[in-house]
Amino acid sequence: xxxxxxxxxxxxxxxxxxxxxxxxxxxxxxxxxxxxxxxxxxxxxxxxxxxxxxxxxxxxxxxxxxxxxxxxxxxxxxxxxxxxxxxxxxxxxxxxxxxxxxxxxxxxxxxxxxxxxxxxxxxxxxxxxxxxxxxxxxxxxxxxxxxxxxxxxxxxxxxxxxxxxxxxxxxxxxxxxxxxxxxxxxxxxxxxxxxxxxxxxxxxxxxxxxxxxxxxxxxxxxxxxxxxxxxxxxxxxxxxxxxxxxxxxxxxxxxxxxxxxxxxxxxxxxxxxxxxxxxxxxxxxxxxxxxxxxxxxxxxxxxxxxxxxxxxxxxxxxxxxxxxxxxxxxxxxxxxxxxxxx
Length: 342
Ligand SMILES: [Zn+2]
Hints:
This protein is of the alpha/beta class. The chain has helices spanning 40-58, 96-104, 113-124, 189-201, 206-213, 220-228, 232-256, 271-285, 287-292, 308-316, 330-338, and strands spanning 4-10, 15-21, 26-32, 64-71, 74-76, 81-84, 108-112, 133-138, 142-148, 151-152, 260-264, 321-324. A hairpin with a 4-residue loop joins β2 and β3 (26-32).
C-alpha cells in the first residue's frame, strides 16, 4: 500500500478532513460541523482528534507522511502563522502550524486555501499533466495561485497570487484592502449582487427590481437564473463580470505566459453567462492570448478519468487554455494533502 497524508480544509463554516494516498486515492473523507465561533482552541482540538482517528485507522496500510491544512487567510510561510483572516478571528499571531505539529507529532504544512485548491487541480483536476498554471477562485472575493513546475509559487513571503486585488478600474469601488477598483469588487459572487443592486437603484433594471422584491433569495444564483431566462438586465451584470475577468486574465497572460488558467469557485457554474465576454476581452487585450488561443476556447476537454493527464497536456501544448475547475470544493482537500508528500 502507498503512503498517505491528511488534507484539511478549514472553511468559515465546516471543517473537512480527508486521508489521501500518495497515488491520489481518497481513502476517507469526514466533515465536522465545527463551530468556528467556539474559538480557535476548540477547532484545533476537534481537528487534531479527527486526524488522530484517521491516522490510527490507516496506519497499517501505509506510512503517514504529514498533514496539510488550507485556511482562508494570508499565511506567513516562515513562521506558520496567519497574518490576517476575516473568517477566523483570533487566529492571527498564534503559532497555528507549530501547535498542531506539536499535538500530532508529525509534519504539518499550513497554507492559503486558494493556493492548495490550485495544487489540487494541478494534481488531479483540470490541470493534470500541466506543469505551469494559475488558478483564479471566484467566491465572496477572488483567490489566486500560481503553480510553476508543479509547485506553488509563493513569492518572497507567501503572498504571491493575490489576483483579486489587481486594479481594474482606476477610480473604482473601494475595497477592503485599501485600494479602489480591485478585480474582486467586480468579478466575485459578492460583486454580482452589489452590481445588480446598483442597477436597480439606477432605475434601469426592472427585471432585477422585480426579482429583488420577490420572496426569492436575491443571490448570484438567482441573478444567473434570470440571465439564463433571457433577461437583459441580468445579462448586463454578467457581461460586466466577464469583462473584468477578461481584463484580469489578459494581464496575467501577458505577464506570465502560462499554459493554463483554471477558473474555480462557486460562481464558475455561471460560466456560460460570463465566459463569452471574458474570451472576447482576452482576444482584444492580449496579443499573446490571440496568438495562442485554442480553436474552441469555451469547450476545453475536461478529463477527470485516468489517462486524462496525457490528453490534457497534449491539448494544452503551446496553447493558452482557460478552463473550469473540476474538483469543486474537494480541490482544497487534495491540494492540502499533496503538500506534505513532496
Ligand atoms: Zn482590494
